[in-house]
Design brief:
Radius of gyration: 26 Å
Oligomer: single chain
Order of helices and strands: HHHHHHHHHHHHHHHHHHEHEEHEHEHEE
Structural class: alpha/beta
Number of helices: 22
Shape: elongated
Strand content: 5-15%
Length: 482
């Protein structure tokens, strides 16, 4: 399990009163997800078991994407190609098998988008069905409680509704539904603002973050990503009438319609392009100008916009070839070739995301190493409270060790790190242990943190290094008193 998955598993296994205590101090933004997982772990809490809800949610998201693509283009092929592009994107596969809320957020955002399309279809037919707007508001609220960053999709939906040109009353009804949905999430937003210190590790985004976001949306292989970007651009080329589900019947012999941004109505570009661009752009700009909050996984659902555009572009190319060949080439031929090609190009990255090396930290390997070699009474120092999560995720492997630097446990404090003793007290206790494990990083007298520097100096002076093992993101060393 990686860092976030350890947090999920430990929080889900807490009694409800302890979970409430945790959420009052940290991770309120994931409160609903932890509550859902609290019920799920009754079925089991192995790494495989806790990942199953994410697998289910991402599968639902893929199905919703196919439905949206078909509804917006009138073609099941375009929807199918969009879904295939989505599931062959390594970032989607990564979060589909990660025990975190991002797959559920993705599904909820797409469900809200589909509800918006149904509501707008009713408005276009002259019906004011308030129940559809209520469903939309409810899905916005649900997504907000799964992760408040999902509310950024409202900016994309605002552009979509504005581009329909259905008139001020329709926009006002959307605005009321969106405002109600967002307002219901306000208590969570206010609580998470109080816990802003938990995001102290986030830095302002740079060019590398833009590159990572493009890889998240289109894939990590340059050739495959370039092909999908070209297809997405093709989907944006005017005329856009071929992408409309209702209205003008696009096909051979029809007059070209105005560009999609002027034609009005619901079009695939007017739904997909804002979804692709706006949530990520808004969060990036906010993180540069104000407090850094941007993390690529918070706007993972923007990948749906990329997949919809690429799928529609592939289908459009297929129509061109179909017409140019005198209808001898089936419209699905380019889509099949490109989807298979992208899959082949992405096989290595897709394999990588199924390995522990795809996680920034692999807690399992080093924890098992300590469990296999620790003796009863060994001391242990987590070189940075961050690494104490290993003990939360794999408690059995630390049964022979004593965390003598810890003053209060995570359960007592209501966080994932606990509270450490003063460094002076830790230094006084260290000579009382014959062997001390150091988990996280190798001790060095040049450590920037004062407490870790002091502990390092004492270890180097009074102890001898007898074991060292490097894992992905973590170093484990064993020191014996001289």
């Amino acid at each position: 399990m990686g860092n976030d998955e350890v947090a999920t598993r430990w929080a889900a296994l807490l009694p409800l009163h302890a979970l409430v205590h945790l959420l009052r101090n940290v991770d309120a933004v994931h409160g609903l997800y932890y509550l859902l997982m609290h019920g799920w772990v009754a079925l089991g809490s192995t790494p495989v078991t806790i990942r199953i809800p994410s697998v289910i949610a991402m599968a639902v998201a893929a199905a919703l994407l196919v439905i949206i693509g078909r509804r917006l283009t009138g073609s099941g092929w375009a929807g199918l190609f969009a879904g295939l592009i989505m599931v062959t994107t390594p970032s989607i596969s990564f979060y589909a098998q990660t025990a975190r809320s991002y797959a559920m957020v993705f599904a909820c955002v797409l469900a809200a988008t589909l509800a918006l399309l149904y509501a707008l279809a009713a408005e276009a037919a002259g019906e004011c069905d308030r129940r559809r707007w209520v469903v939309y508001a409810g899905l916005v609220t649900l997504g907000g409680y799964l992760n408040e960053m999902s509310l950024l999709v409202l900016a994309a939906h605002a552009v979509t509704v504005w581009l329909t040109r259905y008139g001020r009353p329709v926009f006002e009804r959307w605005l009321a539904a969106a405002a109600v949905g967002a307002a219901l999430v306000l208590p969570l937003v206010l609580l998470s603002i109080k816990e802003h210190a938990a995001l102290g590790w986030v830095s302002p985004p740079g060019l590398s973050d833009i590159r990572i976001l493009v890889q998240d949306y289109f894939g990590v292989e340059t050739v495959g990503a370039a092909l999908l970007i070209i297809c997405a651009v093709v989907a944006l080329l005017p005329p856009a009438g071929t992408w409309r589900r209702a209205g003008a019947a696009a096909g051979a012999g029809t007059e070209p319609e105005p560009a999609w941004w002027r034609s009005g109505g619901v079009t695939l570009p007017s739904v997909a392009l804002p979804l692709l661009v706006l949530p990520a752009a808004i969060l990036m700009i906010e993180s540069v100008l104000l407090r850094p909050l941007y993390v690529d996984r918070y706007v993972l659902y923007g990948e749906a916009g990329a997949a919809l555009l690429a799928g529609a572009g592939i289908y459009r190319i297929g129509r061109w070839l179909h017409e140019a060949s005198g209808r001898r080439v089936p419209v699905w031929t380019p889509g099949v070739v490109l989807c298979l090609g992208v899959l082949v190009l992405q096989l290595a990255p897709l394999q990588h995301v199924h390995t522990p090396q795809s996680r920034r930290y692999d807690y399992g390997g080093p924890s098992r190493y300590v469990g296999a070699h620790a003796r009863p009474g060994d001391g242990i120092i987590f070189f940075g409270k961050f690494y104490r999560k290993a003990e939360l995720g794999y408690p059995a492997d630390f049964r022979n060790t004593i965390d003598f630097t810890q003053a209060l446990s995570p359960l007592q404090v209501g966080n994932f790190q606990g509270r450490d003793k003063p460094v002076a007290e830790t230094e006084r206790l260290m000579p009382g242990y014959r062997r001390i494990w150091v988990f996280g990083a190798r001790p060095s007298r040049y450590r920037p943190e004062a407490e870790l520097r002091a502990e390092s100096i004492q270890l180097l002076r009074d102890f001898t290094l007898i074991r060292i093992r490097r894992f992905h993101g973590i170093v484990v060393t064993l020191w014996q008193r001289r």
